[in-house]
Write a structure and sequence with these properties.
By secondary structure, this protein is an alpha/beta fold. It folds into two domains: 3-129 and 321-335, Rossmann fold, CATH 3.40.50.720; 132-316, Dihydrodipicolinate Reductase, domain 2. The protein contains eight helices and 14 strands. Strands 5-2-1-6-7-8 form a six-stranded parallel beta sheet, with helices on both faces. A six-stranded mixed beta sheet has the order 10-9-11-14-13-12. The protein starts with a strand and ends in a 6-residue tail after the last helix.
């Protein structure tokens, strides 16, 4: 038995990656329907190596008969159309921020809290976390199980693809412009992104943090453990794809770097590459197209009791968005929708 799957936001970075991931993982779909705004209607998108699908208009689409809809169109669009799809009996897996902190919507990373998928029946919606949160909690889960994490201090190095295709274009245009002495224009970013870093992602909040930093705090608590305290500084860097994070952890009980390394090597979704030599670590350029969350630079922190520091890298378009959503769908059909329609 197969499933009818809708991909909403199919022409965007994440939407295209979802289509690719569904095909690569041979998701049992009898029909895949790419959806986007009316201005994208008729555009062709790839599904696997051989198939080309034509984008259909989201506004006029009837979700009746669809089993699963994978959404990545932006929060405002999801706010309108995800409940419409859910009301038609389609289970929505939403990549936007719209439903993440809704107490009736499960926020899921399959390697961390797959049991929470069962809560989808309350709204027929499952939320995909923020890309920077996903890769961090995948790395934190085996360590939390081992010694219980008290506090997280994280600084992110987030690629421009997290801000969309136009942001990637801006990095390219600015970089080229610098070499030919063209004036720098800031459109997607508040300051020059080429050859620069910007400590500002999303809007500022009253306490001086940004909404991206707030997301990492509240999402980690919802997914992993509400008792964990988190301090985040989120930074945009001139990298096209791949997020990196410098993570410092304080635990409730002693944990050695060797114990942590062993736990991480045995954890699903994690690859440890941690050699204390030149090139003995993973950078964003090396993680592009990979499914894993990579952990490097694992070491004990002598400045706090029971502390560790580590470096976490992942492809933000894959594990940080598309792959995580498809993995949720895989769990959904295995445990909750075994027969399809």
């Amino acid at each position: 038995m197969g499933y009818k799957v809708a991909v909403v936001g199919a022409t965007g970075n994440v939407g295209r990656e979802i289509l690719s991931t569904l095909a690569e993982r041979e998701f049992p779909a009898t029909e895949v329907v790419p959806l986007a705004s009316s201005r994208s209607t008729g555009i062709e998108v790839s599904y696997g190596e051989d198939d080309v699908l034509k984008v259909r208009d989201l506004d006029g689409f009837d979700f009746k008969g669809c089993d699963i809809a994978l959404f990545s169109p932006g929060a405002k669009v999801s706010a309108v159309h995800a409940p419409r799809a859910a009301a038609a009996g389609c289970v929505v897996i939403d990549n936007t921020s719209q439903f993440r902190m809704d107490p009736e919507v499960p926020l899921v990373v399959p390697e961390v809290n797959p049991q929470d998928i069962a809560g989808y029946t309350r709204r027929n919606i499952i939320a995909n976390p923020n890309c920077s949160t996903i890769q961090m909690v995948v790395a934190l889960k085996p360590l939390h199980d081992l010694a219980r994490i008290k506090r997280v201090v994280v600084a992110t190095y987030q690629s421009v693809s997290g801000a969309g295709k136009e942001a990637m274009d801006e990095l390219f245009t600015q970089t080229r412009g610098i070499y030919v002495n063209d004036p720098i224009k800031n459109e997607r970013f508040t300051k020059q992104i080429a050859f620069n870093v910007i400590p500002h992602i999303d809007v500022f909040l009253d306490d001086g943090s940004t909404k991206e930093e707030w997301k990492m705090v509240v999402e980690t608590k919802k997914i992993l453990d509400p008792s964990i305290t988190v301090s985040a500084t989120c930074v945009r860097v001139p990298v096209f794809i791949g997020h990196a994070e410098a993570v410092n952890l304080e635990f409730e009980s002693p944990i050695s770097a060797d114990e942590a390394r062993t736990a991480l090597r045995e954890a699903p979704g994690v690859t440890v590459i941690d050699h204390r030599v030149d090139e003995g670590y993973v950078t964003p350029a090396e993680c592009v197209g990979e499914d894993a969350v990579f952990v490097s630079r694992l070491r004990e922190d002598p400045t706090v009791p029971d502390g560790l520091s580590l470096w976490v890298v992942s492809d933000n378009l894959r594990k940080g968005a598309a792959l995580n959503a498809v993995q949720i769908a895989e769990h959904l059909i295995k445990d909750y929708l075994p027969g399809g329609r």
